[in-house]
Specification:
The protein is of the alpha+beta class. The protein has 3 helices and 4 strands. It folds into 2 domains: 52 residues, no CATH class; 48 residues, no CATH class. The longest helix has 12 residues. The structure holds iron/sulfur cluster (2 copies).
């Protein structure tokens, strides 16, 4: 199964339908009744965590220092809901602690 993913959902990072159709052709039919799901983002509406094999579409953010206005929203979000590796420096730009990021698997 797959959620609606990137073709309709504003949260979708990947085309879940396309991936599910490709997987279906590769996997089925098979004698093991394996359950696979594809979710378009970490909200995981397709319940990938409950399947035999779950795929969750993610993005790897790229920091563009020239476009950063130093609002601190990413730092706040990182502190509250993620790995706490971001901080605002005295120039109003974002620093990422490379050691902490490495430990968090996010270098
Ligand atoms: S898992 Fe993400 S992309 Fe898929 S329907 Fe839910 S919010 Fe949308
Ligand atoms: S501080 Fe973070 S959220 Fe704000 S503009 Fe810079 S990168 Fe974007």
């Amino acid at each position: 199964m797959a959620c609606i993913g990137g073709i309709h959902c504003i949260k979708g990072n990947v085309n879940t339908q396309d991936m599910a159709h490709k997987l279906e052709k590769i996997i089925y039919p098979n004698p093991y009744h394996i359950k696979i799901s594809v979710a378009g983002c970490p909200n995981d509406c397709a319940k990938g965590h409950f399947q035999d094999f779950g795929i969750i579409g993610c993005t790897k953010p790229v920091y563009d220092i020239d476009r950063c206005i130093g609002c601190g929203a990413c730092v706040k979000k990182c502190k509250g809901a993620a790995t706490r590796v971001l901080s605002l420096n005295d120039k109003g730009k974002v620093d990422k602690d490379p050691a902490a990021a490495l430990v968090a698997g996010n270098a």
